[in-house]
Design goal:
The complex is a heterodimer of chains A (389) and B (416).
Chain A lengths: L29 E6 L11 E7 L2 E8 L7 H5 L4 H8 L7 H16 L5 H30 L3 H21 L8 E2 L2 E2 L7 H23 L3 H7 L7 H7 L4 H5 L6 H4 L20 H25 L18 E9 L2 E9 L5 E7 L1 H6 L1 H6 L4 H11 L3 H5 L1
Antiparallel strand pairs in A: 1-2, 2-3, 4-5, 6-7, 7-8
Helix pairs in contact in A: 2-3, 3-4, 4-5, 4-11, 4-14, 5-6, 6-11
Chain B lengths: L1 H8 L5 H4 L2 H33 L15 H10 L11 H17 L18 H10 L1 H11 L3 H33 L10 H10 L11 H16 L11 H4 L9 H26 L14 H8 L1 H19 L7 H20 L3 H30 L5 H29 L1
The chains are: A alpha+beta (389), B mainly alpha (416).
Chain lengths: 389, 416
């Protein structure tokens, strides 16, 4: 058995090996570059190995796992209620959506349903969280492409959302806002008024972002025709969320398989045509406006009543398995839970949208330039906490 | 010796033209000092202005309103460990920042801050400036190559390609401005920097307004090319932080890095000076012919002092707004002291002999400062171009425009 320790990193690469192993990169036109895990534009600790010909990308390989915490394994040693806060740590940018997916999955397993008021609160908070997630995406994506100012604008406005979360449940980022069977906390006094005030506050702000970017010539040139992915490829790779919709597929779980109270609201699914970075940008901007619409309707019509369903103190679901998925800001977030009838799940498998969407990176950047890799990583909107779990 | 020093004072040419080495040396020292101070000030201003554009405060901790931040940064950079990568080529790695700094500083030999306020006046001034400033590409390529690392290498390649291709459009714009010095009854064609400003004085127009809109277009071409030439946003690909971490100076730290920093900002000031000299009337004050005569001369000569008094007033206003907590006492006193120094400078600038001497330098610096502000503004507004798009703008847009403007300038100049 030869020693695996070597100073030449190229020997580790599977499909990126140079033709002749005794030659260095200087002997070929190809250059192998390690982008990450410590790189300012990989949104955390993603490592991308790039094979380049000059500036042209010949192939990529993602190396993930730097943020692996074994969330799914932890679930097997926690009760259903104890695991609830852990899911917030996966996609920490959209913690509320993660919690909603998990709670609804367990509710489905238990065959209980959250009361209407709880479902409305869930919709309001989840949509606020979608806004927060999209704002963070927009800021960092623009920063990657070189526009540094939108980042500070979006963070300023995201702060208002986090303030509402903090007032509701005491946490800003990893909220643990929902419980199995409903919500633990009743809305605080003036909640509706504050959310309405926020809607009035944020609508002109979104116009402001669009003013900075949508018709900016450099922005359009940098994003149009970059990272194109076809409808077919999207479906074959299992890509979901805004990335799929920008390719022209009208698929949104909030409409397709309505959960929580989404069936009761009037909103549209924005779609794109070309499946490029610019369309994904437009789709997400439209989605932010649609989220505002949903929140507005929910705040108007929020019913009175209990916020918690009758759930036993010790949650012991019947033997069986369940798959439940929701439309998280980044795509389809699914939970597959196997119960053996005990207080702890036998197995929890998460279908994280970031992880699945990341697969499309290679197809999207092949033949493009290094600068486009950065743009595409940004437009995929990945969160490494969710990719690695 | 003393006579040698004194003899220059009565002359009205640059020390270089008078052949006075002593005063040339003094001028060089002054420019070196002034430039270092300008870079330090620019560092603070850029961070502050950019911060206010982005709804944040910028440096606020070191000194009142972060005024001492550049000094703290400089000290930090000077006492940092000197790191040289093991695989680097030591000599080239060592010499690269020096090449960059020397070339950018050499340019300032011919920059005319006033009719006599320049180290020397070469009859090939413009050519000298373009030639020497483009030598800094060499230092950048050396830095990228010597680091023996992928990211710096790519940064250096991008940088050299970009600077070489934008130089052509830049040169065409410059040539059209040089043409304007000769295409009229009074003017005599010249490449001398001082001669070009004097031509604008004689022809009673800044070249940016001459043959409207031809001068404006040439100025625009130069303004775009000079951003690309100095690797600033939106053309900052060589050091694109989100792509190449830091570009050609990724492996540099401490003092060597600060040399690159110094060179970058000096280069910005240098190309801005070219633009000001060629198109914006150099040291000439606004409306030197239209508003001629004793009263307007007096009004315009008060501007330098008024500017400093205005800055002092801002400092005093901020002093009054400082929190009244004992924790801020030192800072409040410091800011008041700073304001007092500014006010004193302002008052000195009202004294007759001083204000007559400082006029040209003041107007030149003001125009350069405006150009520097535009640099910061671009950085706060635009996303970054991609490499191929950058080349497209350079070769397919600016170059044809430059040729067109040059030909049209020649035609219009001959016909009028």
């Amino acid at each position: 058995m030869p020693d695996r320790t070597t100073t030449d990193p190229t020997t580790y690469l599977s499909h990126l090996e140079l033709g002749e192993p005794d030659k260095t990169f200087l002997d070929s036109n190809e250059l192998i570059i390690n982008m990450g895990p410590q790189h300012p534009a990989t949104h955390g600790v993603l490592r991308v190995i790039l094979k380049l010909d000059g500036e042209k990308v010949l192939g990529t390989e993602c190396v993930i796992g730097y943020l692996h915490r074994g969330v799914e394994k932890i679930a097997e040693h926690r009760t259903y209620a104890m695991f609830n806060p852990y899911v917030d740590r996966m996609d920490y940018v959209a913690a509320v959506s993660n919690g909603l997916g998990y709670c609804e999955a367990v509710e489905k397993l238990l065959n209980v349903e959250a009361p209407p008021r709880a479902r409305y609160i869930r919709v309001i908070l989840t949509e606020l969280n979608r806004l927060a997630s999209h704002m963070l995406w927009l800021g960092t994506h623009a920063l990657d492409i070189g526009a540094i100012t939108p980042l500070f604008y979006t963070f300023r406005d995201r702060e208002e959302i986090l303030k509402i979360f903090e007032k509701y449940c005491g946490a800003r980022l990893t909220t643990h806002a929902f419980r199995i069977g409903g919500c633990l906390y009743e809305t605080y006094e003036g909640f509706e008024g504050e959310v309405k005030k926020f809607l009035d506050f944020v609508t002109p702000k979104i116009d402001e972002y669009e003013e900075l970017l949508t018709t900016n010539r450099i922005w359009v040139e940098r994003t149009r025709g970059v990272g194109v992915i076809s409808e077919k490829d999207c479906i074959a790779l299992g890509v979901t969320g805004p990335v799929l919709r920008a390719s022209g597929v009208k698929w949104d779980l909030r409409k397709a398989q309505p959960y929580a109270a989404y069936a009761e609201f009037d909103f549209e699914i924005p779609i794109g045509q070309n499946g490029d970075t610019y369309d994904r940008y437009l789709v997400r901007m439209q989605e932010m406006r649609q989220s505002l619409r949903i929140i507005g309707q929910a705040v108007e019509r929020i019913p009175e009543g209990p916020i918690m369903a009758k759930v036993p103190k010790v949650i012991k679901p019947p033997v069986g398995e369940i798959y439940h998925s929701i439309e998280a800001p980044k795509g389809e977030l699914g939970y597959f839970i196997v119960s053996d009838g005990s207080t702890q799940p036998y197995r929890v498998r998460v279908r994280p949208p970031s992880f699945v969407n990341l697969q499309a990176l290679d197809i999207m950047v092949r033949g493009q330039l290094v600068a486009d890799v950065i743009a595409v990583i940004g437009t995929l909107d990945i969160v490494l906490g969710e990719v690695d779990r | 010796m003393l006579d040698y020093i004194k003899s220059y004072l009565s002359s009205d040419v640059t020390p270089g033209a008078a052949g006075n080495l002593f005063w040339a040396f003094v001028y060089i020292l002054l420019i070196f000092l002034g430039l270092s101070v300008a870079v330090i000030a620019m560092n603070w201003l850029e961070r502050k202005i950019l911060a206010h554009m982005q709804v944040r405060l910028g440096p606020m901790r070191v000194g009142p309103h972060g005024l001492l931040q550049p000094i703290a940064d400089a000290i930090k950079l000077l006492i940092k460990e000197d790191i040289m990568p093991a695989e680097a080529d030591p000599f080239v790695f060592w010499v690269a920042p020096i090449v960059v700094v020397i070339t950018t500083f050499t340019v300032f030999i011919v920059v005319p801050f006033g009719p006599t306020h320049a180290v020397t006046d070469m009859n090939i001034g413009v050519l000298f400036m373009l030639g020497v400033s483009s030598l800094s590409v060499l230092g950048i390529v050396m830095a990228g190559w010597a680091s023996n690392s992928h990211y710096p290498l790519m940064g250096a390649l991008r940088s050299s390609a970009q600077m070489v291709s934008y130089e052509i459009a830049m040169a065409l714009a410059v040539v059209s401005a040089v043409l304007m010095t000769s295409l009229n009854r009074e003017g005599t064609g010249t490449l001398s920097m001082i001669g070009i400003v004097q031509a604008q004085q004689v022809q009673q127009t800044w070249f940016v307004f001459k043959f409207f809109p031809l001068g404006l277009i040439a100025f625009f071409i130069f303004a775009v090319a000079m951003i690309a030439e100095t690797n600033r946003a939106p053309f900052d690909l060589p050091e694109a932080e989100s792509e190449l971490t830091a570009g050609f100076h990724t492996e540099y730290s401490g003092f060597r890095w600060s040399l690159f920093f110094l060179a970058e900002y000096s280069a910005m000031i240098a190309v801005s000076s070219i633009a000001v000299t060629l198109w914006l009337g150099g040291w000439l004050r606004p409306f030197p012919h239209w508003l001629r005569g004793e009263p307007s001369d007096l009004v315009f000569s008060l501007f330098p002092g008024l500017t400093f008094l205005f800055l002092a007033a801002m400092a005093f206003y901020s002093t009054a707004r400082m929190p009244k907590h004992p924790y801020f006492r030192v800072q409040t006193i410091g800011l008041a002291g700073f304001g007092a120094v500014l006010a004193l400078v302002g008052l000195i600038l009202f004294v007759r002999p001083v204000r007559d001497r400082i006029q040209d330098i003041y107007w030149f610096s003001t125009k350069v400062a405006f150009s520097m502000y535009m640099y910061i503004w671009y950085r706060g507004t635009f996303p970054r171009y991609r490499f191929d798009q950058l080349m497209k703008v350079g070769w397919k847009v600016l170059l044809p425009m430059g040729i067109g403007v040059l030909i049209l300038t020649a035609f219009v100049g001959v016909l009028l």
